[in-house]
Amino acid sequence: MFKLLSTILLFSFSASICALDYDFTAGLGTQYGGLGGQFVVNDKESKYFLALGTTGEAGVAVGMKSIISDDEHHSMGVNIGSFGRLLASDTDFAAITYNYHFDGFNGNGWEIGTGIAYYKQDEYKVLFVPNIEKEKSGVSIVFNLGYTF
């Protein structure tokens, strides 16, 4: 019974993935994990994304954004993520963002954005040793630039 149920769930999940409206984007900023790309699942008035990127560090972010204007050029969103470096530091962040979509929220093309992020950075003294030499946190202004394909 468990095998049958697992098989049914697997096929229904696969079918629902095929039915999703999704995009790929490339860009720079916290929404892209640094310099990277997003896998975006589109809803009518919202987009949900997973981003992988680099800034000399491995970056990852998850978030969403929603339309805030009738002309569908303006959106607000949130994202959280982390930049991790093997030898130096880890930076975790949470951001609230505003984006302007030149070709509309659901169109392909350029978008620019800004926002406010809270970050926390841990710096490590020695590789593979968990002792923290220095920790800092604060608020920062963030900028995003991306292209939806």
Which descriptors apply to this entry?
Porin; 149 residues; 12% helix
Structure explained in plain terms:
The chain is mainly beta and 149 residues long. The chain has a single domain, classed as Porin (Beta Barrel), CATH 2.40.160. It is built from one helix and eight strands, in the order H-E-E-E-E-E-E-E-E. It has one helix spanning 2-19; strands at 21-29, 34-42, 46-54, 58-67, 74-84, 89-101, 109-124, 132-148. Strands 1-2-3-4-5-6-7-8 form an eight-stranded antiparallel beta barrel. The longest helix is centred in the N-terminal third of the chain and has 18 residues, at 2-19. The radius of gyration is 18 Å and the shape is elongated. The N and C termini lie far apart (43 Å). The mean pLDDT is 83.
How confident overall, as mean pLDDT?
83
Characterize the largest beta sheet: strand count, sense, and whether it forms a barrel.
8 strands, antiparallel, barrel
- Principal-axis shape: elongated
Radius of gyration: 18 Å
Note the beta-strand portion. over 45%
In total, the number of strands is 8
What CATH architecture do you see? Beta Barrel
Which strand order does the major sheet show? 1-2-3-4-5-6-7-8
| SSE class | mainly beta
Estimate the helix proportion, in percent.
10-25%
Overall tally of domains: 1
Briefly, what CATH class? Mainly Beta
What string, H for helix and E for strand, traces the elements in order?
HEEEEEEEE
